[in-house]
User: Fold this.
Amino acid sequence: MRVLILGGDGYLGWPTAMNLSASGHDVATVDCYLRRNICREENISPLIDVPDLNKRVKLWEDISDRKIPVYIGDLRKWDFISQVFRDFSPDAVVHYAEQPSAPYSMLNRRAAILTLQNNLDVTANVVFAVREFAPDAHIIKLGTMGEYGTPDIDIEEGWIEIKHKGRKDKFLYPRQAGSLYHTTKIMDTDLLWFYVRMWGIRVTDLMQGPVYGLLTDENENDERLYPFFNYDELFGTVINRFIVQAVAGYPLTVYGKGGQTRGYLDIRDTLQCVRLSIENPADKGELRIFNQFVETFSVNQLAENIRRVGKSLGLDVDIKSVENPRKEAEEHYYNPAHSGLTSLGLKPHFLTDDVLGKMIETVIKYRDSIDTDTIFKGVKW
Ligand code: USQ
Assistant:
C-alpha cells in the first residue's frame, strides 16, 4: 500500500516509516520539525543525536535499498498538504503530526495555543485533503488513552451503549482528559467522527497509552536509525525517564502517591498496531476505535521494577516521591478493554526484566550525555 506518514520525523513516526517500508509498503514521510524546534527553544535534547529526516532516509536507503520520499513543510498550510496528497496519492494516511506533550501544552499560553492550533488545524486539513485528493484513503489517527481519563467504571473500546428511560443508543465513550494536549485529542476524535458521519470517510482512531523503548527490528544494529529518546520532563514518557534516571543516579521521580495507573506498550508494539490497522482498514463511513496498550502498571510498580533490575546490573537506584506537578488522581480504579488489536493479530511484547535490562544497558552507553538539569523542572498544571 502507499502509506503517507504525517509526523514522520517523530519518536514513533520514523520507526513506523522504516517498519512499513521493510514490510513492503511504499512509504512517504512529512514533517515540519515542530518537535525539534520546541526542544531547541526549551533547551532540551534527546539522549542520542538524531540525524535530520533527509539524512535518515538516505541511511535507510543504503541499508534496505528502499526509498522513502520526504516532504518538509507545515501541514496547516493548505497549499503544502494539497501538493503532498496530489503528488503521493496515499491509500493510507498515518496521522502522528501533533504536538504530543501533555506538560508542554500546560507550560504557558503560547504553548497552549500552539498545541490547540497545530493539532486541530492539521487534523482538519487531513480530512479535507483526503476528501479532495484521496477519498478512499484510510486515516489512521494516533489518539490517546488519556482521552478517557480515569473514570470509576470500566473503560470500553471507544464506544458505549447507554440505556436511558427504556431506550438505548451507542455513543462515543465519555471522555475527560487531564491536560490540554489530551483534550486536543478528544477534539480530534469529535472532528473525525463528525466527518465520518458527514462524508463517509474511513478512520481508525488509536487510543494509545504511554510508549517505552527505542530498539526495533529495523534499528537495533545502527544507532543512527534510533528514534528520539527524550528523558526530560516535557517529552520523556515515564518509563524512558525512569530508565535514564536510574542510569544517572537520579532518584526516580514518582509524582505524588504513585498509584496513577496507565496502559503501556513497547515501541515495537506501536509499529505492529499501526501496521495491522493499515492492512485491515476500517470501512467507509466507519470510525473504528482501538485501545492501544498491552498491560497496565502504576507508577510505583514501574519504579520498583526499574529499581530491582537496575540493582541487578550494579546501579544504585533510589525512588523519591515528589509533589505532583499535575492535577490527576493518584489512586483510582482502572480497567480498560483492549481486545480489538489482539483480534487483528497483535503479538504483545511485555515489560519483562530482560526488556528493562536491555533498555538500561543501551542507555548506559550514553550515560555521559545525560543532562540531569532537564529531568525535573516542575511544569505545574
Ligand atoms: N509520571 C511520574 N513521574 C514522572 C513522569 C510521569 O510519576 O517523572 C506519571 C504521570 O504523572 C502520569 C504517568 O506517570 O500519571 C504517565 O505520564 P507520562 O508522562 O509517561 O505520560 P503522559 O503525559 O500521559 O503522556 C504520554 C505521551 C502522550 C500519550 C500519553 C498516553 O507523551 O503523547 O498520549 O502518554 S496516556 O498517558 O495513556 O494518555
